[in-house]
Amino acid sequence: MNLQETLAKIEPVDKDAAAAAVRHWDSVAHPLHSLGKLEDVIVQIAGIQRSSRVAFDRKCLITMCADNGVVEEGVTQTGQEVTVQVAENFLQEKATAGILCRKTGADIFPIDIGMYRDNSVRNCRIAYGTKNMTKGPAMTREEAVRALEVGIMIAEEKYAEGYRLFATGEMGIGNTTTSSAIASVLLNQPVELMTGRGAGLSSEGLKRKINAIHKAIEVNKPDPTDAIDVLAKVGGFDIAGMAGVYLGGAALHVPVVADGFISCVAALVAIRICPEAADYIIASHMSKEPAAHIIMEAIGKEPHLTCDMCLGEGTGAVMMFPLLDMALEVYNRMATFEENDIEAYVHLQ
Fold first, then answer.
1. What residues are labeled active site?
2. Residue 346 pLDDT > 90, yes or no?
């Protein structure tokens, strides 16, 4: 599906299926809503899947990998070569996200959507990295749409292969800079508030990063009412690809677990493109990035984990998988009040 076809297929979640899931939880022999958010997320997935018989046996992490021209401005501690190194390590289960996927029984699919040189990762490359956004648009609008459609394509593929729960992840040196730029524009927030140290910048490095974002916004004048314009002018291919996965998941009625700051900025982009996509997104954790709570509030989500993580790659999203598995196991297997011949709890006013 192209972008417009995908958007046309996104519809509200099924409230009747969600209500049926609530009734099932209430029938299970435990104090009402005593599993809290873990009950809520299963209810959410019931609405997404349009059935109270929730199932997601096959899970995968889709990791979008891309480089960013803005690294020329000294906004990172490491060079672009690290993007390819880590992306290739996903395939060998040497990177953190790959190790976590193996432990949780999920599959990982790294995608080269715009790394700066050829490599062994699946090639869906739009270009060899974005341009330096302080000197002009990071990409053209056409490239931004193509990157969104790569995410949609991968979501369609994985759905056809039987995956019923996706997670988003990324790898791209310089992508906390692009994420902060997008967030600042879309939320009309000061750059200084939305920008953190990323993977360990010094105070001087943070200053360069903030100045680079200010310059990029001034040079490109992205339109805050047009998420694709913002994405193209101050964003990255990895963010666009993840946004496409969210949109593709919504069109396919598949829940998508968001990772941390960068992944949630991609969710914000997807929601600004199609507000109905929000109900198909599950937040995993609260990133350590200083603006993470602002982004979480903007996308209308609450995290399930608070571990002060800021690794990226999809690590927090994958750590959500075992929680979802355990919640679903209780939902599907626990005896009801009636089966136990116990008087059911009732909701009290």
1. 313
2. no
- Taking alpha carbons only, the member of 266, 293, 88, 75 closest to residue 177 is 75
Contacts of 186 (CB under 8 A, 6+ apart): 224, 227, 230, 268, 269, 272, 298
Reported confidence tier of residue 349, pLDDT bands at 50, 70, 90:
low
Q: How far apart are CA 128 and CA 187, in angstroms?
A: 29
Spatial distance between the Cα atoms of 129 and 65, rounded to a whole number of angstroms: 10
Cβ partners under 8 Å of residue 144, min gap 6: 228, 231, 232, 235, 240
- Max mean pLDDT range (12-21, 76-85, 334-343): 12-21
Q: Can you tell me the mean pLDDT for 177-188?
A: 98
| Cα–Cα distance measured from residue 45 to residue 38, given in angstroms and rounded to the nearest whole number | 11
Indicate the residue type of 114. G
Pairing relation of β-strands 122-123 and 107-114? parallel
Sheet of strand 165-171, all strands in order from the earlier edge strand to the far edge: 122-123, 107-114, 59-66, 165-171, 256-258, 281-283
Q: Which residue has the tokens 């000294």?
A: 74
Taking the complete model, does pTM exceed 0.85, yes or no?
Answer: yes
CA dihedral 140, 143, 147, 150 (to 10 degrees): 170
